[in-house]
Amino acid sequence: MSTPTFHRATAIGAAVMLGAFALSACGANEADEGGDGDGATIALLLPETATTRYEEHDRPLFEAKVEDLCPDCEVLYQNADQDESKQAEQLTSVLGQGADVVVLDPVNFETAAGMVDEARDQDVPVIAYDRFIENADYYMSFDNETVGQLQAEALVEAMGGQGDILMLNGAPSDPNAAQFKAGAHSVLDGSGVTILEEYDNPDWSPENAQQWTTDQLNKYEPSEIQGVYAANDGQAGGVIAALTGAGVDPGALPPVTGQDAEIAAIQRILAGEQAMTIYKSIKIEAETAAEVAVALADGEDAPTTTDTGVEQSDFEGVPSYIFDPVVVTADNVNDTVIADGFYESADICTDDYADACEAAGISE
Q1: Local structure of 342: helix, strand or coil
Q2: Res 36 pLDDT > 80
Q3: Is residue 32 part of a domain?
């Protein structure tokens, strides 16, 4: 499958009665009374906590940007812990609390279409965040097939163009996982690399990745595995734990890919235990979501060009904002996650990794 081509391309009011006085609800959209979404309620529904990015980056960055753009706005936050039924209940809850806009990163993109319909029945727009929903009002994410291609290209290069690998993909319920997988296969299937076994991890969990890899080590000797495609850093950590648990020296691990630029992954890369990760500027994504959400809450059109310089485009018929992923290796940690302020060098260069940081030219 080729990388998708992208083309440029009021919420309801509510009131609460107290005695004989009518007061505007805290979450009501009073767009006609002022700008910047004053008094609006914006719901942020994220899918899980197994991946560290959501609690450590997406949520605080989104909330901070909303606060900056609209100090009087309220953010209703919920995390579904990978439970689609729970997420559906959370949507109903935030709508009942007067949400004017919903920013939704779905557990399951297929069942999320019904959630969008529920919100639309109440004239509440939905922004599909990070994962595509076909009937959403807006969508924002990274160029996901390119992510898979970049991962696979780095793996093939690290392996010298040939060898046998294990392949660990993301959850089948996550549309991004299918795109990562397609992008990776578009590179791997035409290379000199052979896939020994392939696994779709149902919840992206590192624990599943570790157990599955351990099971494969009952079929194959560690020396028979010359590389591992892991779709994200959590799974990469599980794979590496399984390999070292089977007696592989940390300095002799096969190249392992990743994604999300988690601190643990950056440290493993500097220590030579993981080959690479994909850095996706969550700051740009979260702040773009906040900017669009505040505009919609204020009854305005979503910006055609955001404050961060991202242009609105079209993805499968949905107005979208698409961001570019970046490969991170030991050679460019300074120029990517540190230069962008995603991490401070002190966050990465703890005592255990001080020597590795010094060797990579990273100083506090």
Answers
A1: coil
A2: no
A3: yes
Full domain range(s) for residue 330: 144-280+326-359
The answer to whether the CB of 55 falls within 8 A of the CB of 262 is: no
Q: Where are the beta strands (DSSP E) in the chain?
A: 7-8, 15-18, 21-24, 41-46, 74-79, 101-104, 126-129, 138-142, 162-169, 192-200, 227-230, 277-279, 313-315, 318-323, 326-328
Angle between helices 263-270 and 233-245 (to 10 degrees): 50
Q: For position 38, what pLDDT does the model report?
A: 64
Q: How far apart are CA 125 and CA 262, in angstroms?
A: 31
Amino acid 13: pLDDT: 36
Q: How confident is the model at residue 163 (pLDDT cuts 50, 70, 90)?
A: very high
Do 74 and 152 share a domain, yes or no? Answer: no
Do residues 127 and 101 make contact, with C-beta atoms less than 8 angstroms apart? yes
Among 22, 16, 129, 30, residue whose Cα is nearest residue 70: 30
CATH number reported for the structural domain that contains residue 64 in this entry? 3.40.50.2300
pLDDT computed for residue 364 by the predictor: 65
Helix (DSSP H) and strand (DSSP E) numbers for the chain:
12, 15
Q: How many domains does the chain have?
A: 2
- Whether the Cβ atoms of residue 45 and residue 89 lie closer than 8 Å to each other: no
Mean pLDDT computed over 271-284: 95
By C-alpha distance, which of 240, 221, 242 is closest to 232?
A: 240
- Residues 113 and 203: their CA atoms lie apart, in Å, by 20
- The DSSP secondary-structure symbol of 50 reads S
Residue 257 has phi, psi (to 5 degrees) of -90, 175
Distance CA 330, CA 267 (A): 9
